[in-house]
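Model the whole thing, not chain by chain.
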Amino acid sequence: MPNCKTVVPYRGTPEQEERLRQVIAQHKGQPGATMPVLQAAQEIFGYLPEEVQIMVAQGLDIPLSEVYGVASFYAQFTLNPKGRYQISICLGTACYVKGAAAILTAVEQKLGIAPGSITPDGKFSLDSCRCVGACGLAPVMMVNNDVYGRLTPDQVGPILDMYK
Amino acid sequence: MSLVRSHILVCTGTGCSSSNSPKIIAEFEKQLAAQGMDKEAKVVRTGCFGLCALGPIVTIYPEGACYTHVTVEDVEEIVSEHIVKGRIVQRLLNKNADGEGPATSLAETSFYKHQFRIALRNCGVINPESIDEYIGVGGYEALGKILTERIPPQQVIDTVKASGLRGRGGAGFSTGLKWQFTADAESPDGVKYVCCNADEGDPGAFMDRSVLEGDPLSVIEAMTIAGYAVGAHQGYIYVRAEYPIAVKRLETAIAQAKGYGLLGKNIFESGFDFDLELRLGAGAFVCGEETALMRSIEGHRGEPKTRPPFPAVKGLFDRPTLLNNVETYANITWIFNNGPEKFAAIGTEQSKGTKVFALGGKITNTGLVEIPMGTTLRTVVEEIGGGVPGGKKFKAAQTGGPSGGCIPASLIDTPIDYESLSAIGSMMGSGGLIVMDQDNCMVDIAKFFLEFIVDESCGKCSPCRIGTKRLLGLLTKITEGDGEPEDLDTIEELCNHIKQSALCGLGQTAPNPVLSTLKHFRAEYEAHVYEKRCPAGVCKALIQYVVDPTKCKGCTRCAQGCPTGAISGAVRAPHIINQSKCIKCGACMDHCRFDAISKQ
């Protein structure tokens, strides 16, 4: 399971923690506050380490098990930090029938990592995703917010080389 | 609002945005200013035109000229020729219906000729970030009439019933009845909710996304009408966080509606209050299931509950809740503005109106289409979709996503409606329509959908959690060449068990992709099991790429194109593929100019 406890030490700053406290204060007492707060927390810290989950649980006054339950249930939440460049390969049906699996293998080979992990230098992280909705351009790869469509496996190397 | 002579409509849907439309808009604005036309022509950012395969798309009115595959470099010419001199740039025009000569307007193309747009009526026509444009095309007439003429809620529900509209999210339940049940349900404190399912999770489906990106206010207006009809004052739109453009446009639309007093307290001074909130989904397919979606809005893990009680009786926060999907809501105001009879006149006996499909896969015109119910699959694939590209043969169409099935070429004349599709083992689903050709292996496709289900199963009930995993194990065994004859029977038996015993719709329909491919493509399964052969040449364990030394000229193109460096050989000498390094992506075969590489 890629979404397990991270080995990277926690590096949250007091400013980040203050922003999280403000978000919690805004949502406290509102029905169904857990998800919006976790979404904001992930935006602030980039991921949801144990330390952040504890702050959310204490701030909203709900059990940590419930926060962890929600954080580990949804694909959007990550307990591991992401790379400077986040690669996601669309494995939606339209991309899959047009050869997305070969694109994924080419990226794995190039970076030497499996989906759900990050390169040791923290530069690239790789994930597969379910449909980015750009099916007209299949197969599709995203690097941060850049979309590359109508890909063939041999284009992967040159594209990734552009990211320094 | 200042008047202008020309409107330049540029698609800012996800597909076109990904192929540079924001830069094209910036260039248009720059060129218009540079050529002194910025007072006479205006750039409008619209939603999806539907023809994503030809994007980025630019349409210029009043001429209605539709330019396709526009690049930033083309903009200067379009402005100087079309806007300044009034001469249409022929080389950028789309081809017309019969493929001969360019068509000026979209309506003339075969892609649009068979379509009838209700849910998509405003997509690509108005600026989705301007409530004034929405009102300009008849927006808020329906709600205004209902509230100011004080039409009784029951009459509103009867209108929806009379239209014959059925849920567009997949199951096809009567929308009018759903409204009736929620209106009739008793709430302990009088509180009821109206929700919109915008958690479009089917991979390969982007209908709801395009409606939200192109016409968000039609959904908001319809939800307000629904709130009035069932007696709710609070609504929630549960939208995927993976759709950033849709989320932003919904936020803009809600803020504008609030600013005009069309959401909030005392709408149209009628005393009716209705407010809307967005909730972002966090990527869980099961949250498309209604009870799971509500659990998620409540802030929990999105696990389904047993029904009954149905959400209409006990839904969100245990109150009666109406839940419809985006496309269903997008039909509502059209029904009120044009009359339910007109809506009921479109389509078939049991399935009224139109359905939006996201055409994808091995088809020329990928994009978004809206067709009257009862249109045959052949019309969609061959005429609207332009057929399978590259001279390949149509093999199957998949509808209904991971809950649906594959329709083989022999059934291509099946009319598309709820009943006909279920009769052949598929389903309408939310509207993904993926075309496959001779190069797609049906066992591999079934395995693909099961991998998806295993990944997305919430784990609450064991038939789905364990059953689908075992099913995937069996299919993997077959695709790796280790299948045994009895496996096919075991698969069928297990499928039927899961169908009967899983808790929610996700689990109950999970075996459909397997059952339908097994039914229509059994010979392909048998080839894997008995002959250890993948007829389509997809299953990696059963194929290898080899170089024919008599044909290879040693041009090194294949070696340069190989992403893993698996090909070696001296210049002008036959090359060799190292099978242990080969990832079987087929890039070498595409690069070879001498037909020297083959799949065995």
